[in-house]
Write a structure and sequence with these properties.
Layout (H helix, E strand, L loop, with lengths): L2 H19 L17 H4 L10 E2 L2 E5 L2 E3 L2 E5 L3 E10 L3 E4 L9 E5 L2 E2 L3 E3 L2 E6 L2 E10 L6 E3 L7 E5 L2 E3 L3 E2 L4 E3 L15 E11 L5 E11 L3 E5 L8 E7 L3 E3 L5 E5 L2 E10 L6 E3 L11 E6 L5 E6 L2 E3 L15 E4 L4 E9 L8 E10 L5 E11 L5 E4 L4 E7 L2 E2 L3 E2 L6 E4 L4 E11 L4 E3 L9 E8 L4 E6 L14 H17 L2 H14 L8 H13 L6 H33 L32 H12 L5 H11 L5 H10 L19 E6 L9 E7 L1 H11 L1
Parallel strand pairs: 4-13, 17-25, 30-39
Antiparallel strand pairs: 1-2, 3-5, 4-5, 5-11, 6-10, 7-8, 7-11, 9-10, 12-16, 13-14, 15-16, 17-18, 18-23, 19-22, 20-23, 21-22, 24-29, 25-28, 26-29, 27-28, 30-31, 31-37, 32-36, 33-34, 33-37, 35-36, 38-42, 39-41, 40-42
């Protein structure tokens, strides 16, 4: 095969592959005629994919769709009728339960077998349109009848009288009220007690939440209360456990039954108001209402006038409203808001928390820093990194942010336009000395915690400006350690001379906290030597001599491995914990970069994610179709404008930062108690690999 023929074959294969990758599922009417007999075979076991789905959620498919349920009930029996449109063989649930089981059930005029599945009467229907009917038999009309959750429309007749508003609750129970049985007798004790509470939220726009507490006794019935809607108010939400409807005149039509109930009505006003009054209502609506005022001092400061102040603890206000000022609102009272100030010239300080992770360079020339900031901002609206730290990358809620530099300022930062933030930032601190900034940002923080990562060969001797550092050389010393070292040094001084005592003090001070170093064996040797100097020649002296020799032998057995380990780790610090250092350094040197340039770094994690995307299998039919549906979801012009304003220009060069190391060696936790100021610093006393090697040789 020549070169031209091979080239044509490769081009043809690439075109075939690209066509397969871009292929979309065919609709049934577009299937080629020779393949139509195979459609049923291809969809075997996946018949639900041809069923309609709910609104814009392609994953929620239903193959059986019911029409309205027609119920004709009386005191002794009842009948039901319903039509079902079935797209694929499915199980359908009938009205009733184990206590009230449907009888004489028919499908399209033919008897059908009803099965018990999970305590509910069910039928298995084939694809097509089916007319179901059946009947109930009982001794007396039940209080409620179970209705399938898939049924949304119910046509109810009781004793040949139509019920205009069937009482169907969220648990699928259809309440059969005594009032509709045709008795026609007025019930004694039908009472409704109403208490009204309103919460005025002085926000933009102003909102009022009305809480109705109902105490109902007697029979189940329909009542009309109100009007509950304030003048010029626009209803937003009606929340009720009872069937309720807001009429055009502002009154509430409720189907009540005995018990205690709560109804919440939330409304808003088209503009800022300065006067509010309660609407005039008839009994059982109370003459006096209890109002609470929820001020928003950040928007405006107002003074409430025209109402009588009451103690909220002496009322039945909702628990979350009792911390607000409460007022009694009568029929002729008017709530007047006197505006004292607009806006908040002195907003509360920012409430930010910082979690900082530092990696020291292997040569000790600087630090790579990763910050995680969370909390709430109320002022400032700009986070800038103070020198000498340089900000390299920032992301809010996972979205990369463009780092800017304001004219006249020496700090690089980002603009924040959200009250609650979750920010991640990477930065560099070059030519770092012992003194480091605790936060590095131009903001004070309520709480700060951190972690210091030291490479092999480095050791933290002490830290100043940090409240809690548990793993430094100085922090490891306890009173018992100091006592034992001093006892050994004094004993050596008394047994020999001051030179020996000084040598013992320095030696034990250097090796006491080293892993595998001899400690208590020194005290045993000194005690045995002291006894041998005063004991006469007898059997006990021989025992002490044997004990001294055994202690010396133990010292040799402990010291030799310790000396070998000190020499080895002094020359090769990585051997201190073999295998603990996963990656030496995934960060490239970019210390000469400016804040406006892009670091040419390819992270190991990003590379692995790219490989994963390449080898990712082709998405199945369902996922591709879901993406197609989502891409065609309608958006209003306002939503498109908001999304466009929140997006970053795709041509903008977003800074990628210095890149973060992913190695772990010596990890030291840093803690600060209480708030930390932006100019607070800490001092770290570090021992570099060179002096650390000399120290380990001296310890030998």
């Amino acid at each position: 095969m020549d070169h031209c023929t091979l080239k044509r074959v490769l081009v043809a294969l690439s075109l075939l592959l690209s066509a397969n990758l871009l292929a979309t599922p065919l609709e049934e009417d577009r299937v080629p005629e020779p393949l139509k007999p195979w459609v049923e075979w291809a969809l075997y076991g996946e018949e639900q994919k041809t069923c309609p789905f709910i609104y814009n959620n392609e994953k929620q498919r239903h193959c059986a769709w019911p029409s309205d349920l027609q119920l004709d009930l009386d005191k002794r029996r009842g009948q039901f009728k319903q039509r079902w449109q079935v797209h694929s063989e499915s199980w359908v649930v009938l009205p009733g339960n184990q206590k009230h089981w449907p009888q004489s059930v028919g499908v399209n005029g033919k008897p059908a077998v009803v099965l018990n599945r999970g305590g509910r009467p069910t039928l298995k229907l084939l694809a097509g349109t089916h007319a179901l009917d059946g009947e109930f038999v009982w001794d007396r009309l039940p209080e409620s009848l179970t209705i399938p959750s898939t049924t949304g429309l119910v046509s109810l007749k009781i004793n040949r009288r139509a019920v205009p508003f069937p009482d169907l609750d969220t648990k699928g129970r259809l309440w059969l009220r005594e009032r509709d049985t045709g008795s026609g007798k007025a019930k004694v004790g039908d009472r409704v007690e109403v208490q009204v509470y309103r919460r005025v939220e002085d926000s933009i726009p102003m909102q009022v939440t009305t809480r109705l507490d109902l105490s109902v006794s007697g029979t189940q019935r329909e009542v009309v209360l109100g009007p509950a809607l304030l003048a010029d108010a626009i209803p937003l939400k009606l929340k009720s456990a009872l069937p309720a409807r807001l009429e055009t005149d502002g009154r509430l039509r409720i189907q009540v039954r005995p018990g205690r109930w709560q109804i919440d009505l939330v409304v808003r006003f088209p503009g800022q108001l300065t006067k509010l009054s309660a609407p005039k209502a008839n009994a059982p609506w109370p003459k006096d209402e209890v109002w609470v005022f929820d001020a928003r001092t950040a928007l405006r400061l107002v003074e409430v006038q025209g109402l009588t102040t009451i103690d909220p603890r002496q009322t039945n206000l909702p628990e979350g409203w009792r911390n607000l000022p409460a007022y009694r609102m009568g029929e002729k009272d008017v709530l007047t808001l006197k505006v004292l100030r607009r806006g908040d010239p002195l907003p509360e300080p920012n409430a930010l928390n910082l979690r900082r992770t530092l990696w020291l360079d292997f040569d000790g020339g600087g630090y790579t820093i990763k910050d995680k900031i969370s909390g709430r901002m109320t002022q400032g609206w700009r986070l800038a990194m103070q020198g000498p730290t340089r900000l390299g990358r920032a992301a809010i809620d996972g979205e990369p942010q463009f780092i800017t530099h304001l004219r006249g300022e020496a700090e690089d930062g980002i603009e924040v336009r959200r009250g609650t933030i979750k920010l991640e930032a990477d930065s560099r601190l070059d030519a770092a000395g012992r003194s480091l900034p605790v936060v590095g940002w131009n903001q004070d923080f309520q709480s700060v915690s951190g972690e210091l990562n030291l490479p092999p060969g480095w050791r933290l001797l002490g830290a100043r400006g940090v409240d809690k550092v548990p793993n430094t050389w100085l922090q490891r010393w306890t009173l018992l350690d100091l006592f034992l070292v001093l006892i050994a040094a004094v004993a050596t001084l008394r047994l020999w001379d001051w030179r020996g005592g000084l040598l013992a003090l320095v030696t034990l001070g250097l090796i006491w906290h080293e892993p595998g170093a001899p400690q208590n064996v020194w005290l045993n040797i000194l005690a045995a030597i002291a006894l041998l100097r005063v004991l006469p020649a007898n059997r006990f002296r021989s025992v002490v001599t044997w004990y001294r020799n055994a202690s010396l032998l133990a010292l040799v057995l402990i010291a030799i491995p310790f000396m070998i380990n000190q020499v080895r780790t002094g020359l090769y610090p990585q051997l201190e914990r073999p295998g603990a250092l996963r990656v030496l350094d995934s960060r490239m040197d970019d210390r000469n970069e400016t804040a406006g340039t892009i670091a040419p770094i390819v992270q190991k994690q990003a590379l692995s994610e790219a490989i994963t995307r390449v080898v990712k299998p082709k998405p199945d039919y369902q996922n591709k179709y879901s993406r197609k549906l989502r891409s065609k979801a309608p958006y209003s012009p306002q939503q498109r404008a908001i999304n466009l304003n929140q997006q970053i220009d795709p041509k903008a060069n977003i800074q990628t930062g210095p890149g973060l190391p992913n190695w772990r060696w010596t990890r030291i936790a840093l803690r600060w108690n209480g708030p930390v100021k932006k100019d607070q610093t800490m001092t770290l006393v570090l021992l570099s690999p060179g002096p650390n090697m000399i120290l380990q040789f001296v310890q030998v």
